[in-house]
Amino acid sequence: MATLLRRAPPPPVFFQFSSFSTSIIQPKFKPSSMQCNSVVDEIPRTGENSSWKPMCLYYTQGKCSKMDDSLHINKFCHSCSIDRISELKNLRPQEFDYFLVLDLEGKVEILEFPVLLFHAKTMTVVDVFHRFVRPTKMSEKRINEYIEGKYGAFGVDRVWHDTAIEFQEVIEQFESWLRKERNGGGRLWTGEGDGSLNGAAFVTCGNWDLKTKVPQQCEVSRMKLPPYFMEWINLKDIYLNFYNRRAPGMLSMMRELRIRALGSHHLGIDDSKNIARVLQHLLADGALLQITAKRGSSSPDAVRFLFQNRIK
C-alpha cells in the first residue's frame, strides 16, 4: 500500500466563517440576459476589498467576443489563476511536474468537463481546458429542462446552449490540448507507448469522476476509454493521510484549512479552482501527492485503491 512519507501537524481547529454561506453563489433561478455573460450579476461578498469576479465562461472555452469591451472586462474574470501562497518552507519535491485538476458535472450524462493545469513547482494554474458537454441520449426537451434546472440556477444556461458539444468532440479537443508543447517543448500526452500522461496526474475530489462517470459516458458515447484515465489522485485520501483528519468533501476541506470558497458550487470550473486552492495548501504544508487509484491494464473495470486509509 502506498503511504505518505511525512505526517503533517493537524490542520487549524475547525473554523466556520460567518459569511461562508455567502462566499459561494447558491442557486437562484435567474436567466442570463446578454451575450458573453457568464453568470448572474451576483458576486459573493468576500470582503470589502475583494477582487473576486465571476468567470467569463465564453473565455474559458476560447470563445469570448468581448475582449475589447472594458465594461465586460471589468465585470468578468478572464483568468483561471489562483492567489499565490507566501509560506512555502515545507514545500517538497513532487513525483509529478503537473496536476490536472478535474471536476465533472452531470448525473445522467456529463454536462461540463473542466481541467485546470496546476504546476507543482510554481504552485500556480498555468492553463485551462473547459468545455460544456451536450448529452447524446436525451431528448431536446429533457436537455432543456435539465440545463434550465442546473445551469439556469447560476444564470449560465445561455452560455451552455451556445457552446456545448458532444463528449467525443470534447475528448478530441482535450487530446489536442494535452499534445500542446509546454515550457521546454514537453507534452503532457503523446498517445505513444501505453498512452499514459507524461509527468502529470489527474487530481479529483473523490473517485466518482474517473472511476465511475467517465467510463459510463464513454459507453454512452460508444467510444473506448482513453488510456490516460487509468490512474488518478483522490485529494480526499491525500488529505486524510496527511492531516490524519477525515473531510468528506471540498467544502469541508476548505473550512478546516480556512480557505474561503469562491464562485458557484456545482459549477465545474469554479469547483475546480477551489479544489486547486486546497491542493495548493496541501503542497505548501508539505504533502506528497501520490497516485491513489489505478485501473487494471487487462481489466479497466477493476480499480485498485492504493491507500489502505482512505475515504470510502
Summary keywords:
single chain, 312 residues, alpha/beta, 8-stranded mixed beta sheet, 28% helix, nuclease, Ribonucl_H
Structural class: alpha/beta
The percent range for strand residues is 5-15%
Question: Which residue ranges are poorly predicted, with pLDDT under 50 across at least 5 consecutive positions?
Answer: 11-34, 38-49
- Rg, Cα atoms, Å: 19 Å
Main beta-sheet strand count, sense and barrel state: 8 strands, mixed
* Cross-sheet strand order for the largest sheet: 5-4-3-2-6-7-9-10
Short description:
Helices cover 28% and strands 14% of the residues. The protein has helices at residues 20-23, 70-75, 140-150, 157-163, 167-178, 208-220, 235-243, 250-256, 268-285, and strands at 24-25, 98-102, 112-119, 124-134, 165-166, 200-204, 231-234, 263-264, 293-295, 303-305.
